[in-house]
């Protein structure tokens, strides 16, 4: 099992969700996050008061998935979330040790 | 609100295109009795004045409250809303008890008449449905209660404007104490000095029965001096004496909801027609002039602020457009009944770059924490308008000129001089700046010593909503 964390541009969330549902991904967790990478912050000006925001808003998606689907998920996220511009985000893949479905107590891939 | 043209009495008025109602001079009654005055009121004027009162109330709540509230951080949203809401309420009570009397009656002694009224109408003694108030036309009156409530709404919004200067860092109770004392010691005397007079049917016989600045002939149609310069300088003094917010210049304090601010600015814009056009007291051609002038100056100022931002910051901002609209409204306030629509438009175009310079450059240079730019927009915009009024009122520029009410019936004063009027305007501005500035400084100092103005640092950091009012604006 793999645990996939993707940081994407917020407005790409719907496209990514649709692409993953089409692949058969059964669920995901989404969080609004802030952070920075190579994309620099932006300047906001309120009546002459300038604020440089170092942290930009992004969306973090977390998906637990079986090993055989992991590569396809990474590719689908990359395709759906990409704009070609700096700040598109990243996808991380982690090994997932265990999973349990709380309602039934099932564990392993059956819980995903 | 003083010394303006009697409708239909002058060539310039006709040039404006309003229908010159033929005033039957021969039938006019000098110094009419109270019973005669009642017959000189009419339903149209009364309806307009009452509607205008509602519009000005809407400027304060929710207009000003939302305009200000959107600009502070989430943790201080309710404190600003509550401050405006309570100031409006307290100022209303105060107006009925002593305010109206101190502003709009003759002095306790003749020597005091130029400066402040007496207490003959305190607790609304002698005011009822059968008493009348003067307008700016001979033999035209409005019900005194309508005038009372219209002026009340001005006394409500003016102290509420002040809180923007030191938003996010003042305790609630000392603020209300300040507002009560400031109204009594500053607002009522200044309102009296600018607006109190015997009226057009009485001034010929009692030429000294007028406030000081009214007597001098200072032009302030709807309260640029009384309201905006007055509140603007009081706010500035408070901002300097209370000090900067914790973390000012170090931590980011961006507005929490410019959506709220846009709604508030728009309500201010709509309500301001009651403020400016309502200040004619009658529903007449001059009222329409003030209405159109208010509209055009505001449009122009919103556009010119956006243009300045486009040039300097490369992006026009919503906050800038809203600030420009308010600056335009402030600037046209004293000029609204005097200017030609095209000169009002120019006044609007000019005021935004000036205010932009103050809120963007001067404030940063001197590093004072005028949180919501009460000084930069209201005081500076008010001064621009007060001085600009001397120019746009000139009949040579299509303005209305000044009226000599010491004649009966009143006549247009011949030979309008922009330079001479400018001197009078400047004197009125300086008197207001000094009186309001000095008295405000004394009040802030004394209240700070007695009960303290600032919350504890910890309370300020946590936010005034929780620490002063025990609630949050947003529970999500």
Describe the structure.
- The complex is a heterodimer of chains A (112) and B (476).
- Chain A contains 2 helices and 6 strands; from the N terminus they run βαββββαβ.
- Chain A is of the alpha+beta class and 112 residues long.
- In chain A, the strands form 2 sheets. A 4-stranded antiparallel beta sheet of chain A has the order 2-5-1-6, with helices on one face.
- In chain A, strand 3 (42-46) and strand 4 (49-53) form a beta hairpin.
- Chain B has one domain (11-17, 42-466): Ammonium transporter AmtB like domains (Ammonium transporter fold), CATH 1.10.3430.10.
- Chain B contains 16 helices and 4 strands.
- Chain B has a two-stranded antiparallel ribbon with strand order 1-2. A two-stranded antiparallel sheet of chain B has the order 3-4.
- The radius of gyration of chain B is 22 Å and the shape is globular.
- The N and C termini of chain B lie far apart (48 Å).
- The chains are: A alpha+beta (112), B mainly alpha (476).
- The A-B interface holds A 44-49, 51, 53 and B 252-255, 313, 315, 317, 319-320, 323, 356, 359-361, 363-364, 373.
CATH superfamily caption of chain B: Ammonium transporter AmtB like domains
Give the H and E element order of chain B: HHHHEEHHHHHHHHHEEHHH
> So what's the overall shape of chain A?
elongated
Helix share, percent of chain B: 55-70%
Percent in strands of chain A: 35-45%
**Unreliable sequence segments of chain B:** 1-24
- Strand adjacency order, main sheet of chain B: 1-2
CATH topology of chain A: Alpha-Beta Plaits
Cα end-to-end separation of chain A: 9 Å
Strand segment tally of chain B:
4
What fold name stands as the CATH topology of chain B? Answer: Ammonium transporter fold
Architecture of chain B, according to CATH?
Answer: Orthogonal Bundle
